[in-house]
Amino acid sequence: MGTGSSVLTMTHMDTVDRLSPLESWWLDIEREFQQLHVGSILLFEGPAPTLPELTGSIESRLDLIARYRQRVLRVPLELGRPVWADDSGFCISNHVKHVTLARPGTEESLQDLTAAVMSEPLDLSGPLWETWLVDGLQGGRWAMVNKTHHAMIDGIAGADILSVLLDRDPHVKARAALAWTPQSQPSPARLATSALDDMLRVPLDEVSRGLARAVRSPLAFTRQSVVDLYGLAQAGERVIRPESVLDGPIGPRRRWGWSRTDLAAIKKVKNALGGTVNDVMLAAIAGGLRTFLSARGEEVDGRTVRAMVPVSMRTPQEHDRLGNEVSAVFADLPVGISDAGERLVAVTRQLSRLKGSGMAMGVDSMLSAAGLVPGALFALGARVAAQLPQRAISTVTTNVPGPQVPMYLLGRRMTELFPYIPIGAQIRITIGIASYAGRITCGVTGDFDAVPDLAVLCNGIDSATQELLALVS
To answer: What CATH number should be reported for the domain holding residue 7?
Structure first.
């Protein structure tokens, strides 16, 4: 009995939780002007809880989301990718904060506050998250602003974490916070030894799995390899783009705004005109970009704007896993088409083609292959790759489905959910799409100095959405 317990303890101590290639990539390209945290802004009915109440509620759920009490440890000499380890100095008061909006507490002041919070980088030496309680919002409402580093979470996992913090029943009794004892931190020598072990073991494992797939199903293996290569070729395709406000250097400060509509109305459009909810929203975003660029005096007729559209690589069985499982396709938004219906047709046709093109699988295969690269070389490659998107894309749009039933926190109903997507490289505007309980929203992020007219884009998305609704009213 004692021997078995000792073996289990030794095995546990020898195991390190290494960051995936994608998680490590997000950390390696973090810069002073490029804060790579994602976020969500949740609006609730009042009255607002106190800071101790909110802190206690979050702390009572931390046993369900272990990553929230972990920090990143670098491997000596960057022999391997970093690892996750429990933060022995974790203090929740460093992560849950409070601010009151100045009267009259408008939605615009909440947007400005969110932009200011998101403009500050996270402390990369501790757990990579913050939550802000914001009270004083008009109508007796309050908000919660969450920021989490992209290394810790992708969009789909983010929806899962919200489902851990929120309840479907407003009468759920408060949980008591469980006692927590952090696991001992691996020593620098252990980190180095583990990294060297992985360098020797992982390539052999990958080769073995590849050979097994090839032997079991040679035709499928060959076909998938061709699809992956074709996808990589598309992902690396370069396009000639006109000079635009969308592209260029960024500063440290952000602007942030939103657009909102009813999900049922968007579904009515897609049922009548074809495509998916995501296609309809991308068509509305294309219309909003057309309005925004025209207001800037840029030529839009016949023009497209290339957008990176992240797609989840998770299976339904993987939705309870933390971490990044995301890839991407590159779509050309048809801002040059003036008719709303024709824009939707163009988006639907293109996204349908891209989904079967292998581009997402090609990008995903490239990231998977990064697992074979030593940490120092991977970090160097990540920094070089961070400069590549500016040659290929002008914006990022992402769609994250949220819960479709009302959710509650401390008995208060959440009324709306807005996403925050970071900007980076030379991409000055990003747009996140989120759906929740019959509403669909866009969170629009812009560089503070380059995009003082961000509201024009938000209003343009609203107008383009109404144009689509008018076609089926």
So the answer is: 3.30.559.30
